[in-house]
């Protein structure tokens, strides 16, 4: 008798790339792991948005934590007018604005504040806003770092409305339509504000842009 050979079946794990909305719905039902996935996907964008708004990395990390906490508590308020990312970035910029106003009030009153960022992961803690460069040329690296700092300082000098629109459009790459939908503005208004903010930056930075 011969033994019938059976084919060996290898189980291959399939990675499912679900849209943000799937995780939002699951998280709104109390699934914390689903929200953790959203944090993992968007944490760097949130940190960058806060850092460009505030001009300070450690403050940005604190704002990022607060923004995710606010987003989690407000999931029922996500109506899908724009993407979850755009909605989250709007929360981030609003949180950064409140944080900045609070800090300014503390400075005026002369009170010293103690900031705790103990919950920040190692990956977040090492995050920075420097432009990536693979050349290794120290002169080029220095020039890029100086340009990066110049851009950050220029963005800091804009008023709140212009700063928000430039960060969303030119730093984080949100579409005009997504910004319009989430901010409750017309498409034409968003484009006009972006254009004006860019002109302001060109005046500030001059030949570097």
Question: What does this entry look like structurally?
Answer:
By secondary structure, the chain is mostly helical. The chain folds into two domains: 10-129, Rna Polymerase Sigma Factor, Chain: A (Orthogonal Bundle); 130-209, Orthogonal Bundle (Arc Repressor Mutant, subunit A). It is 66% helix and 0% strand. The chain has helices at 20-28, 32-54, 57-73, 84-109, 122-125, 138-157, 160-171, 176-183, 187-205. Mean pLDDT is 78; it is low at 6-15 and 110-134.
- What is the chain-wise order of helices and strands? HHHHHHHHH
What CATH calls the topology of the largest domain is Rna Polymerase Sigma Factor, Chain: A
Overall geometric form: globular
Largest sheet: none
Q: What proportion of the residues form beta strands (DSSP E)?
A: under 5%
Task: Please specify the SSE layout and strand pairing.
Blueprint (H helix, E strand, L loop, with lengths): L19 H9 L3 H23 L2 H17 L10 H26 L12 H4 L12 H20 L2 H12 L4 H8 L3 H19 L4
Keywords:
Rna Polymerase Sigma Factor, Chain: A, 209 residues, 9 helices, single chain, 0% strand, mainly alpha, globular, 2 domains, Arc Repressor Mutant, subunit A
